Amino acid sequence: MLRRLGSAVRGASRRFQPLPSCKKLYSSESEDARARPPKLLVVQPRVRPEKLLQAKLNEALCLANSLEDQRDGYFHTDFFDKPLPPHVLVQNRVPRADSYFGHGTVDNIKCHVNAAAESEDEVDAVFVNAILSGVQQRNLEASRAWGKPVLDRVGLIIEIFNAHAFTKEAKLQAELAALSYKKTRLVRARGPDGRYTFGASGEAEVVSARGRGSGGQGFMSGAGETELQLQRRRIIERRNYLLSQIEEVRRTRALQRAGRKRSGGSSGQGLATIAVVGYTNAGKSTLVSRLSNSDLFSDCRLFATVDPRVRSVVLPSGKKVLFSDTVGFISDLPVQLVEAFHATLEEVVEADLLLHVVDSSAPNLDEHRTTVLQVLRQIGVSDEKLQNMIEVWNKIDMEEECMDVDEYLDDKEKDGFNLEDGVKSELLAESEGTEEVDCEALEEKEDDSDGWLYSDDLVDECKFCSPSTVADQQNESFEKHDGVEKDRSIEQSGPHVKTSAITGVGLQELLELIDKKLRVQNKKGAQAVERSIYDRKWRPSHNQESGIAVEQ
Ligand SMILES: Nc1nc2c(ncn2[C@@H]2O[C@H](COP(=O)(O)OP(=O)(O)OP(=O)(O)O)[C@@H](O)[C@H]2O)c(=O)[nH]1
Ligand SMILES: [Mg+2]
């Protein structure tokens, strides 16, 4: 499915600055090694149903291939020229506290890591598409397990943000998120010699003269601080510095917002802002670019936009509005990122109107919608704004492709090709209690899935053809994501407009709808002001002589 997305739009020239957070992913620190993105082995725990598994695997592969530093404002490799990252599907029973996976699965994955190294296709790190605790991560990184840096979902998303951040604001926020994440990962583990060690490469615990009790006074004042304490202190110091810098950014943004509210051109009213939100890769930047005739950076890599941008658009009524293109959301969005990107996300909370862009070709579209609504609530968007939000189903041009794929698959099926074989061939049949693994047999396994996986939805049905079916299915899936009491009417509403940011279909309709919504909103606002004026009590002034009434 993803192979068929449009080509990337290149952004303006930007200066490349490698970020230190990605360093540990590279096995070598040479310039050559730094020039290429890290190679990850993707480990996808099995989830049900099969459709969801395919969507999760697709997303995991996209995440793995999205980790690449930008140079001069764009990525040097075309996303679809990149080879499919090596990947393994594994059974996912109750996660173990120490290593997340059972011993059999850990050994299986180790075999894949070793096999890659022997075929001179060594991976730099292992990406587990799940959320790991610090201890689980450290144990899996240990030499007796995989002997490679391990990234969980949260860690990889934060690395991608770091790699894609370009402006000072985005860099500060991405670093803050990385620090908050790192702080929870500082764990001590027993090294091969039985002694406590610290850090990914197992540095020995050191005692610094500075720190608790010692104040740099040596043995007279106590044992000083351990490496763990030292690292914690450094993180806290850096974190405080970043927080103070971000606070400045917030203040600047607030001033800019206030300025925009004041300046309204000929109308004399403030410029209305429309925040464009949605799941990552839904087509937000492409849509804003198309509406504003500009060239915002868009790409098939996930989190192509980390630096928010504002563009002005003239509505059919002649009213000028501002569209704010923001960072995309994702399921299990790291809480550290939401907190760190508070300054950026404030634009969304403060916007006059929200535009929720949904990728209508996504197989798990309902999960995407729920995720976006959850994040919007998390950052403090009011229910009123959510009720008023416009939902845009983008990429409807893929409807035709959907038809084409149907025909293509029909032909393939006639030729005896089974699409799901590609996925299942990778599944490791880990039986309960399996301890020994036949590595040779594993090496013989071939990856039948030549290229990106197609989603079941493209095979079974075409969502564009029956949006009502999708809405019907949503009831069921929203139950699964429960936990927070929600206004279900918001979640059950279907698309207001269907667009294609590439072909331009539906864009005029969208602008007219925005115009209408803003008009209604202004009217309501004006009525509220009027009411508040009439509601005021007027009393005669104490100064009877002047005869002028003053407002109390
Ligand atoms: N076929 C098709 N592709 C689209 C459409 N809109 C966007 N795309 C493609 O989808 C990919 C992602 O688009 P972006 O605009 O970067 O998506 P985004 O929502 O801004 O993504 P993030 O910034 O990563 O959150 C790009 O390759 C676009 O060319 C559309 O209407 N139809
Ligand atoms: Mg974008």
The residue-averaged pLDDT reads: 72
What is the radius of gyration computed over CA atoms, rounded to a whole number of angstroms?
27 Å
Euclidean distance between termini CA atoms:
65 Å
Structural class: alpha/beta
Helix content: 40-55%
Report the count of strand segments: 17
Biased composition (Basic and acidic residues): 477-490
Pfam family, one: GTP-bdg_N
Protein name: Hflx-type G domain-containing protein
InterPro entries: G_HFLX_dom, GTP-bd, GTP-bd_M, GTPase_HflX, GTPase_HflX_N, GTPase_HflX_N_sf, P-loop_NTPase
Tell me what the structure shows.
This protein has 552 residues and is α/β, with parallel strands linked by helices. Among the domains are: 183 residues, Rossmann fold (3-Layer(aba) Sandwich); 192 residues, P-loop containing nucleotide triphosphate hydrolases (Rossmann fold, 3-Layer(aba) Sandwich). 42% of the residues lie in helices and 12% in strands. The longest helix has 36 residues. The protein is globular. The chain starts with 30 loop residues before the first helix and ends with a strand. Guanosine-5'-triphosphate binds next to helix 8.
Topology:
Blueprint: H1 31-35, E1 40-45, H2 50-66, E2 87-90, H3 103-118, E3 125-128, H4 134-141, E4 150-152, H5 153-164, H6 168-183, E5 188-190, E6 196-198, E7 203-204, E8 207-208, E9 225-226, H7 227-262, E10 272-278, H8 284-292, E11 309-314, E12 320-325, H9 335-340, H10 342-350, E13 353-359, H11 365-378, H12 383-388, E14 390-394, H13 398-414, H14 421-424, H15 439-444, H16 456-460, H17 467-480, H18 488-492, E15 497-498, H19 507-535, E16 538-539, E17 550-551
Parallel strand pairs: 1-2, 1-3, 3-4, 10-12, 10-13, 13-14, 14-15
Antiparallel strand pairs: 5-6, 6-7, 8-9, 11-12, 16-17
Helix pairs in contact: 2-5, 5-6, 6-7, 11-17
This protein binds guanosine-5'-triphosphate and magnesium ion.
